[in-house]
Amino acid sequence: MNIRIFGGRVVDPANQIDQIADVYISEGKITAIGEAPAGFEADQEIDASHQVVAPGLVDMSAHMREPGQTQKGTILSESAAAAAGGVTSLVTPPNNKPITDTAAVAKLIGEKAEQAGYARIYPVGALTRGLEGEQLAPMHALAQSGCIAFSNMRQPINSSLVLMRTLEYAATHDLLVIFQPQDADLAKGGCMRDGANCTRLGLNGISEAAETVEVSRCLLLAEQTGVRAHFGQLSTEKAVRMVMEARQKGLNVSADVPVHHLILTDENVNGFDSNFHLIPPLGSQLDRAGLRQALMADGIQAICSDHQPHEAIAKEAPFAATEPGISGLETLLSLSLTLVHQGLLELPQLLHKLTAGPAQVLGIEAGTLSQGATADICIFDPEMSWQPTAENLRTAGKNTPFTEVTLTGRVTNTLLGGKLVYQL
Amino acid sequence: MFELKDHNQIQLNSEGQLKHFLTTEGLSRELLTEILDTADSFVDMSAQQVKKVPLLRGKTVVNLFFEASTRTLSTFELAAKRLSADVLNLNISTSSTSKGETLKDTLMTLHAMHSDMFVVRHSDSGAAHFIAEHVTPDVAIINAGDGRHAHPTQAMLDMLTIRRHKGAFEPLKVAIVGDILHSRVARSQIHALKTLGVDEVRLIAPKTLLPHSVDMLGVKVFTDMSEGLKDVDVVMMLRLQKERMNSALLPSESEFYKLYGLSNDKLAYAKPDAVVMHPGPINRGVEIESAVADGPRSLILNQVTNGIAVRMAVMSMAMSGQMTEKPQPAAAEI
Amino acid sequence: MTTGQLSVENLLDKMSADLRELLQQRQIDNPLLIGIRTGGVWLAERLHQQLEIAEPLGILDISFYRDDFTQVGLNPKVQPSQLQSTTEDRHIVLVDDVIMSGRTIRAALNELFDYGRPASVTLVTLLDLERRELPIQADVTGVTLSLNPDQCVKLAGPEPLELIIRQRS
Fold first, then answer.
1. How many angstroms separate the CA of residue C166 from the nearest CA in chain B?
2. In chain B, which residues have their Cβ closer than 8 Å to the Cβ of A205?
3. Do B34 and C81 touch (CB under 8 A)?
4. Whether B320 and C73 lie within 8 Å, measured CB to CB
5. Nearest by CB to C114, which of B47, B50, B323?
């Protein structure tokens, strides 16, 4: 099938393309940008005038909730949400039921993703069995079954010896480890960032030390073992700086931040609005400024949605009794664009963090519009105003504080392998 | 991106009158003073032969206590009865039920009972706000203590006690001593004292019992009691729970008493006419010496009497505020 | 703007004479005089002197017994009622400055009955504005007035006692 996307501003940060041009697709691959290939006859034409044509977004963390938590969402509903958000490749963490610590679960996720056909889903495998922090998970088998990286999520690995061994094992097979750094005891019982707002609200606070102490431990062990390490969903400016400095010293480490931590702060929790109950908790204004600065200085390689859909009842209780997380796939791009609208980043620089940056960390061929690359494409109108509502969101989880908020910038078309999987 | 709302305004109706009493934070000086004035008239009434008034006759007040408490429950019950209300006590422990889910379900069940007012005590901060946001519009919510967040009636009875003994708030230096970190009483007291315009609010505690960035509330922080009590007019002691010793917050009760307990020696650092208060129940020999608790400067028993009057005041004001609430006009179609 | 005054002193003389006669008729020789705050108290004090009653005057504040609490809220400046003796089995003379709808007197009666069961209640009022909403009548009245809808009347005091009729302009 031949597709021509015409009239759009093509932004491909990986190839430093930023120009109005047509994009030509054949057999699910990008054949040319600009001049039509000889003898090209389009079967389908997509009008992208006044819009941006970008590589499909690559999301470093989006919970698909399947297997085992289907009251919150399914691979079908959540990958459809991904398509609506312009996300064509995403990484789903291992905390399903059962946990992704056996090849069977990894394969199941892959199969369901293909059946749904809305996005490429890369499962993360567990670092330790059951995420219990004691025994190694069968990382090699998991990698063979499709796991793209390994993580113990925020489950503690109390023994530094065990942690070191898992990293050594991963390094043996050149596997990527994703840390979600949180010291379990320092964070225990907490539900928001410790600080002046937390004090007024009388909620149990999580000190920033919970993140920095663990980042410190992981950096030292990553250095020692030589493992490829990525720090997922950092929330403190101190931690981000630590990772930046390690990178500058030549360590093979990278970091991402959830888009929400670039926009919101702990002040948003005022009034005990459970929509702002997040783990890692929203930081102080200083943290938000520090994260933005690091983003602009390329100290952060990716922005993710940290998509966590929930059933309604999970958020309908006094704050500390609610489950943390925002359902964020469909607002990822719009929220990220606020950074461009505020003049903090140029569009190509921002898009790098959503496409080529995460793709490079993961080592996958995605996030570019290179010639011959798979035609995973996101077309969006950067000026369109819209309001997310329970009706227009495709995700099963309507837990987002952005309903009834006017956002600027919306995905209009998403192509996966040259096939239109979403159109506004 | 978001207009940061003041979520404490949910307590007021469209005329700015009290319709829920959830926290002292965010209420104006005028409103807090109105609560004190109203409570004053109820204190005087309690000394009379006829202690009952018909203000809440025909109204049903439900005491919804998710956290056990005999004292607070009984003073609210007495206050409601003195207002001639029908009172229902529901003691729901959270140990055998899962949190949150039960709260919402409980509210649905209670809705069917057509009550006019809930007095709520819950171990989760924000529970009273949650309930106020989820009940039908004509039910008043009185917060009898939510987690570590607020205990507004306790703070107001403390303010009433101070006013009845010291008169004006402006010249006063007030010290709050003890486990500030875990105290909802302290938070409510700080907001009330600041709003009523006292000269200085001081917190005296070891670092392990001070919340993060507490100085942002406009208070002076001391870790040394002799320094902190200098020239103080009112000393408000807080209760220390035994489990704090087991969570690596304090080494022992005796060390705490030595450094932060109120003995006559320590009291001597304060002004000669300084008064002593405690929300109760007292841990003798841990927070406070018996001689001080039972001594001439102690207002602890006055606090108890004032507690009934303050609760009568907020209950009548909130009921009246609920009933005078005018329905909002429908939004104009564009 | 003041449009007229009536002499309170003259009315009080008439009222105390009428009251004395009424109490004689009813064979009440030990009445308990109670004034309703605030205007009723001022008047009751005068009657108390003129009738030479030894027992101290009682003061009734009806704020907590009003029937419009849910519409207008609570008056925070309430002071407690002061009744030195019990009302049980006593002949009460209740004094107020103005009777209009009758609701104030209804509230006062409710409160009196909470203090005990009186033997009787005799109602004395300076002004009757004849706008009853309840079936309540005074036994002794100073003067009956019919006001225009835009007029209102107020008793000023305690010294001197003056009735002021105002036009709402």
1. 29
2. 211-212
3. no
4. yes
5. B50
Q: Is the pLDDT assigned to residue A332 strictly greater than 70?
A: yes
Residue A328 corresponds to which tokens in the numbers above? 């964020």
Q: Looking at A40-193, which runs of residues are DSSP E strands?
A: 44-47, 52-55, 57-59, 87-92, 120-126, 149-151, 176-179, 192-193
Cβ of residue C110 closer than 8 Å to a chain B Cβ: yes
3-state secondary structure of A293: helix
Using a pLDDT cut of 70, give the percent of chain A over it.
Answer: 100
Provide the chain C residues 41-70 that lie in CB contact (below 8 A) with chain B: 63-65, 69-70
Q: Which of B2, B125, B187 sits opposite A320 (nearest CB)?
A: B125
Best mutation site among A192, A197, A200, A402 for testing chain B: the one with the most B CBs within 10 Å?
A: A200
Nearest residue in chain B measured CA to CA from A262: B1
CATH 3.20.20.140 matches A56-362: yes
Hey, which residues of B are catalytic here? 71-72, 99, 121, 151
**Do the strands A17-26 and A2-12 form a parallel or antiparallel pair, or are they unpaired?**
antiparallel
**H or E segment and range at residue A119:** none
CB atoms inside a 10 Å sphere around CB B70: 10
Q: Is the pTM of this model over 0.80?
A: yes
Q: How far is B61 from chain A (nearest CA, A)?
A: 22
Would you state the pLDDT for residue B96?
Answer: 41
DSSP line for C52-91? T--SPPEEE--GGG-TTHHHH---TT----B-SS--TT-E
Q: Which residues of C touch B37 (CB under 8 A)?
A: 76-77
User: Taking a C-beta distance cutoff of 8 angstroms, is the pair C155, C143 a contact?
Assistant: no
Count interface pairs B-C at CB distance under 8 A: 50
> Cβ contacts (< 8 Å) between C70 and chain B: which residues?
319-320, 323-324
Across A50-70, average pLDDT: 97
Are A199 and A229 within 8 A, CB to CB?
no
What distance in Å separates residue B70's CA from the closest CA in chain A?
Answer: 23
In chain A, residues under CATH classification 3.20.20.140 are 56-362
Active site residues of A: 306
Per-residue model confidence as pLDDT tens digits over A115-131: 999 999 999 999 999 99
Q: Which of A202, A268, A317 sits opposite B148 (nearest CB)?
A: A202
Structural domain boundaries in chain C: 2-66+81-167
In a mutagenesis test of the B interface, which of C78, C83, C87 is the best target, namely the one with the most B β-carbons within 10 Å?
Answer: C78
**Residues A334-360, mean pLDDT to the nearest whole number:** 97
> C2-66+81-167 has which CATH code?
3.40.50.2020
Pair type for strands B173-177 and C32-36: unpaired
Query: Minimal CA–CA distance to B1: which of A383, A59, A336, A395?
Result: A336
Question: What is the predicted pLDDT for the residue at C79?
Answer: 80
Choose between A172 and C77: higher pLDDT: A172
Contacts with B205 from chain A: Cβ below 8 Å? none
Domains in chain B with CATH codes: 7-150+305-323 (3.40.50.1370), 152-303 (3.40.50.1370)
Of A322, A310, A289, A286, which is closest to residue A197 (Cα–Cα)?
Answer: A286
DSSP state of B327: P
CATH number assigned to the domain with residue range A2-53+374-423, chosen from the 4 options 2.60.40.1120, 3.40.50.1000, 3.40.630.190, 2.30.40.10:
2.30.40.10
Cβ distance of A202 and B7 shorter than 8 Å: no
Q: Does the CB of C149 have a partner CB in chain B at under 8 Å?
A: no
Per-position pLDDT tens, chain B of length 334: 777 778 889 999 988 999 999 999 999 999 999 999 999 989 987 777 777 899 999 999 999 998 888 889 999 999 999 999 999 998 776 544 545 456 888 888 788 778 999 999 999 999 999 999 998 888 999 999 999 999 999 999 999 999 999 999 999 999 999 999 999 999 999 999 999 999 999 999 999 999 999 999 999 999 999 999 999 999 999 999 887 777 888 888 899 999 999 999 999 999 999 999 999 889 999 999 999 999 999 999 999 999 999 999 999 999 999 887 756 554 443 3
